Amino acid sequence: MNASRAPGPDADRPVTVLVVDDDELTRIGLRTLLSAKPDLEVVGEAGDGAEAVAAATRLQPDVVLMDVRMPRVDGIEATRRLQALPDPPKVVVITTFEHDEYVWDALRAGAGGFIRKRAPSQQIAHAIRLVAAGDSVLFPDAVRRMAADRHVRRDASVTAALTGRETETLRLMARGLSNQEIAAQLVVSVETVKTHVGNVLAKLGVGNRTQAVVLAFESGVAELGARADPGQPLTQVMPRQSAAALRASTDP
Prior knowledge:
With 252 residues, the chain is of the alpha/beta class. The chain contains eleven helices and five strands, in the order E-H-E-H-E-H-E-H-E-H-H-H-H-H-H-H. It has a five-stranded parallel sheet with strand order 2-1-3-4-5, with helices on both faces.
């Protein structure tokens, strides 16, 4: 990402956002909610995926808040096109239905995570901040259920290039653990985990942790059975962290 665009938890400027939805009232509502946050700035709107790509190319937002079910070009194809740009923005899918098959395909296309439209405004804003900072907004149990509903064909060759430790790291990523939590589980340093995560992304040929987790379920590395943490709700968003904590837990 270019230095001129790079958002950071301590950056002087707000995180810039492009709102994409085919419903004008929804766009107005999201713009109003997000504009009330001093660290977020809505720089534009788009009514479908084609407009989204054109607007993102022109406006260079840090994050695109992307609806998936839209006419002409849907959010899945728009996400693919955005990820093909030289300096792609981060994408957060905003959806009505948590288990929508469109969400799964959008995650595979490169979205950093998803949030429900009916989520409280502070959760939507926090999801944008997390993705802008390089993290993923991912609900492991919801992703597990989507994978189970799609009856994905397990293909071990997808992760064949991973070492044993990298495979274990990927499995823990699929449980929704942060780098710090993975380090505690593996009894290694956070820096070592960052190296493992970077190797996983490179070997799988994906751009973010979310895509890696989707492949973990598709390959069978992540189990489709028991919930990662029975005590956590399906729609939990990670608690707000300090800038230093975000950098430590999310890089790469």
